């Protein structure tokens, strides 16, 4: 957590200074009690003489003597009533300054708390953007959302809110303890004997809090994951009348979470009453021992001084109790921080080289040599010994049954994953020697399921293209056969399409996705079954847009409907992760192999 505090050092320094001032003025305000009581009850008839400050008399004796000298002097000159009024006014002024400093010390901590939470959220979000796709295939999306929301919120509640306590209360304890030692070192040392006992009891109670908090936060992640699954699969749930089953499943997780949080919160709720009881017990024992000292004939410990000591002792108990509550809250936040760290400390296998080679465009060819690929924690090869050359300007189609490895091969070219062995090169240089940004800058993707954002049509088409003008976006939409339906919307290009484009039809979403690729105008296009999920009419409109898009570009098209790739320069047929056939449509049909079999099946 300390690294997040660094940018806010000036606020931290301000809080320390204001807390010191608050403690000092608080001590002065309480110190007024002693002379006020002595005046009220006429307890001190001693005649004090002023002791020079440079004399060899002990500082404590000199300070107390001179304070009482001035009080006695003005008491004789002005009268007891006026002196008492002045002392009361001084008490009010000291208290006003103390509370102002106390408020200031808390106020300057607010930017630290909110800033740290903002920084953690930004770091998680940026980490999510930088992690490879493989990380998210192993993690539940709802769990990641839970860590970014619930766990960060717990860090804010438990840790950042405790920073104020961790700064303020040790300062108060230090200053109050100094005053207690100054007032009566014997009674203070007697009091200290109880601190280890209190700390041990509080530690025993809070020992399991972090462990239980980890378990509770894990159940919270399961809850969020089920909510995410439910929202994504609502149509299927309703179609299969599975509402009761899903409700029971969700109820089981939330009930487990409730029981776990009951234990965590019950244990945390013990902090205040236990510390209250221990504090009261300590004060009672100190009252007894202090009374014994005061009644002793050898002691100079009078009643007003003893009352001041008790006031200061009671004042030191409150920050100790606050620290004890923080000792309960912080383990909960640390449990959440551990879960956040799982994302923040995740290592990305897809990294830029130390000295990336310049990539100023695509000039010659893409070469794939002896390419093998398998996912982590799996021994099954997804791609096995793939060799392929794609020349600039070619239209290459990759076909095959589901699970043949078509999409995986396409994902390796922009380095969404790295090959397990073998290489992919552009213009004779391994793509791992280029920077990721420059490599992906050469490519545009159109996927089977268009990925759109809950924003305007304009912003979705201009996504990733800075300074795109309306004229550029309109031109791209026209090439993608999208301009006509966009203008039918009342808001036109300012129409907000909803979550993942839910307010558009499938064909319209796909054409927006194509327009986005048109605007980027990359030299290499990767089309991943761009028409597979469309009806015949929408497919025709989208295919026309794709034909326009592919003009003058190197295109790698993964095709489900083989009728759309008859004009490809070369068709690559994959099966079981291997390239089993290749050639033009007519050549492959003449071979009467897998490609012809797939074509015949689709024509039935």
Query: What's the CATH superfamily of the domain at 2-344, by name?
Result: ABC transporter type 1, transmembrane domain
In spatial order, strands of the major sheet run 6-7-8-3-9-10
Approximate shape: elongated
How much of the polypeptide forms β-strand, as a percent range? 5-15%
Q: Number of DSSP strands?
A: 10
How confident is the prediction overall: mean pLDDT? 80
In the CATH hierarchy, the third-tier topology of the domain at 2-344 is known as ABC transporter transmembrane region fold
| Major sheet attributes | 6 strands, mixed
Spatial separation of the terminal alpha carbons: 64 Å
Q: Helix/strand-derived class?
A: alpha/beta
Low-confidence stretches: none
CATH architecture identity of the domain at 2-344: Up-down Bundle
Query: What's the helical proportion of residues?
Result: 55-70%
CATH class of the domain at 2-344 equals: Mainly Alpha
Q: Tell me the radius of gyration.
A: 37 Å
Number of helices: 24
């Amino acid at each position: 957590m300390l690294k997040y505090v660094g940018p806010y050092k000036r606020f931290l320094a301000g809080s320390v200074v204001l807390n010191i001032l608050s403690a000092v003025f608080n001590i002065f305000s309480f110190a007024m009690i002693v002379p006020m009581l002595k005046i009220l009850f006429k307890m001190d008839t001693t005649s004090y003489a002023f002791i020079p400050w440079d004399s060899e008399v002990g500082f404590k004796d000199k300070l107390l003597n001179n304070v009482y000298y001035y009080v006695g002097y003005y008491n004789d000159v002005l009268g007891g009533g006026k002196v008492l009024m002045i002392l009361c006014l001084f008490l009010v002024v000291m208290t006003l300054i103390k509370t102002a400093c106390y408020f200031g010390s808390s106020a300057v901590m607010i930017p630290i708390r909110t800033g740290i939470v903002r920084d953690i959220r930004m770091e998680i979000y940026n980490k999510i953007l930088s992690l490879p796709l493989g990380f998210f295939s192993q993690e539940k999306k709802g769990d990641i959302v839970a860590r970014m929301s619930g766990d960060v919120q717990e860090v804010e509640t438990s840790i950042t809110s405790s920073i104020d306590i961790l700064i303020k209360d040790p300062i108060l304890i230090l200053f109050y303890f100094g005053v207690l030692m100054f007032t009566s070192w014997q009674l203070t040392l007697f009091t200290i004997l109880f601190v280890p006992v209190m700390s041990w009891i509080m530690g025993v109670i809070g020992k399991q809090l972090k462990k239980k908090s980890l378990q509770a936060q894990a159940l919270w992640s399961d809850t969020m994951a089920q909510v995410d699954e439910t929202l994504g699969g609502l149509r299927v749930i309703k179609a299969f009348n599975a509402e009761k089953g899903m409700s029971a499943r969700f109820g089981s997780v939330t009930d487990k979470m409730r029981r776990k949080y009951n234990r965590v919160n019950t244990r945390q709720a013990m902090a205040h009453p236990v510390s209250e009881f221990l504090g009261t017990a300590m004060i009672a024992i100190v009252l007894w021992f202090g009374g014994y000292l005061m009644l002793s004939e050898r002691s100079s410990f009078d009643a007003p001084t003893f009352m001041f000591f008790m006031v200061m002792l009671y004042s030191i108990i409150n920050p100790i109790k606050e620290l004890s509550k923080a000792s309960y809250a912080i383990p909960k936040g640390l449990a959440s921080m551990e879960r956040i760290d799982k994302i923040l400390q995740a290592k990305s296998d897809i990294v830029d080289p130390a000295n990336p080679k310049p990539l100023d465009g695509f000039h010659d060819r893409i070469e794939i040599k002896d390419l093998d690929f398998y996912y982590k924690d799996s021994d099954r090869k997804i791609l096995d010994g793939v060799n392929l050359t794609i020349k600039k300007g070619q239209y290459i189609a990759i076909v095959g049954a589901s699970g043949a490895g078509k999409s995986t091969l396409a994902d390796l070219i922009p380095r969404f994953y790295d090959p397990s062995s073998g290489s992919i090169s552009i213009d004779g240089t391994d793509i791992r020697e280029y920077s990721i940004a420059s490599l992906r800058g050469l490519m545009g993707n159109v996927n089977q399921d268009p990925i759109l954002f809950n924003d305007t049509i304009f912003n979705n088409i201009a996504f990733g293209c800075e300074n795109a003008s309306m004229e550029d976006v309109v031109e791209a939409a026209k090439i993608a056969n999208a301009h006509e339906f966009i203008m039918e919307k009342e808001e036109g290009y300012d129409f907000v399409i909803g979550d993942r484009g839910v307010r558009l039809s499938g064909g319209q979403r796909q054409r927006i996705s194509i327009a986005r690729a048109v605007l980027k105008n990359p030299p290499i296009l990767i089309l991943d079954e761009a028409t597979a999920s469309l009806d015949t009419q929408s497919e025709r409109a989208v295919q026309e847009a794709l034909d326009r898009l592919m003009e003058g570009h190197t295109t790698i098209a993964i095709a489900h409907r083989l009728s759309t790739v008859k004009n490809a320069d070369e068709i690559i047929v994959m099966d079981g992760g291997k390239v089993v056939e290749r050639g033009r449509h007519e050549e492959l049909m003449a071979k009467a192999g897998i490609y012809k079999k797939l074509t015949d099946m689709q024509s039935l």
